[in-house]
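Reviewer comment 2.1 asked that we show a complete input and output for one of the modelled complexes. We chose the nicotinamide-adenine-dinucleotide case, as it is the one discussed in the main text.
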Amino acid sequence: MGFTHETLPQRVRFAAGEADAAVREEVELLGARRAMVIASPRGTEVARAVTAGIEVAVLHDGVREHVPLEIAEAARAVAAEHDVDVVVSVGGGSATGLGKAVALTTGLPLVAVPTTYAGSEATDVWGLTTDGTKTTGTDRRVLPRSVVYDAALTRDLPAGLTTTSGLNALAHAVDALWAPRADPINAALAGEGVRALAVALPAVLDAPHDLTARERVLYGTYLASAAFASSGSGLHHKICHVLGGRFDLPHAATHAIVLPHVLALNAPHAPAADRRLAEAFGSTSAVLGLADLYDRLDAPRSLAELGLRDDQVAEAAAAILPSVPPSNPAPVDLGVLEVLLRSALHG
Ligand code: NAD
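Response of the prediction step:
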């Protein structure tokens, strides 16, 4: 074996029903005293409860998906105005993303309390949107110093969002297997992430308040995202990045719909990934295992239902092509991308 693997330095806590105590301890460990809490407007009540044990200098609810630059700058100004020494984000990937935007320019430590399965908390990837174009980058300053997973905060995540967000998590693991820095360590994380998600997501849909199953989804989410953070973006993420940024498609649902098509393209060219995924799904092949999971979850299938039009496929394919990773196992050209997008368009 010849490879170099980098593990990101981060504390990860699983604390079902105890996020408030865990957040207090994590903030204390950082030696911080004045927190800026970031949450979406509908998440402020939960954020208040989760941060009840720390001194909150300001609760900022200016969260918007894909972090428009002006939203990031407003949040940075609030951080400066209140002289805070730690940022605590409570919410989905959009709240984490705004926390990262503040950490990026201020260097403030970030504690992330995720309430969806987006997985941003385990990566050092930031994203900002300017004039409809989303730019992403990696920077160690945006990696949350601590992540607090409290399954109780995800108990009321609606079924549709549980499915799409959970499949967004799964996509991190699957794409990690052929991403540019794929290696045996992130493949092991990815395989265990898929195994956990494949069992726990249907269990959560059957019993949405089952905290053990909800916690298992968070465990799979973390592993998948840690694998993705280490391996980098594969073809799947390159496709979804263009679809989300250029055509304003919703993040989690887009990932959920595109994933089977990327897997169908790559699996025949990636026998080791195919075997690992098949085993994780408990199936004879990766494609069949994923198809079975999609049936059980009644997952969304059509990009057209999200608003993508047939006449936008060629533009999307042309925008994706320059970013296709050379590591992708299946050969990819414009024609391949158009066929893939058309099948995802119609489901
Ligand atoms: P989101 O944070 O926008 O949340 C989706 C919706 O769910 C929102 O309306 C939110 O208020 C609601 N919500 C959140 N938690 C809830 C709960 N527990 N119960 C009920 N409703 C709840 O969406 P997301 O899918 O979590 O995250 C998407 C964003 O994260 C995108 O901008 C994406 O680019 C980013 N992201 C970044 C990375 C990274 O590594 N940087 C990784 C994944 C996602």
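Strands lie at 11-14, 35-38, 56-60, 86-91, 110-114, 125-130, 133-138, 146-149. We note this here for comparison with the apo prediction described in Section 3.2.
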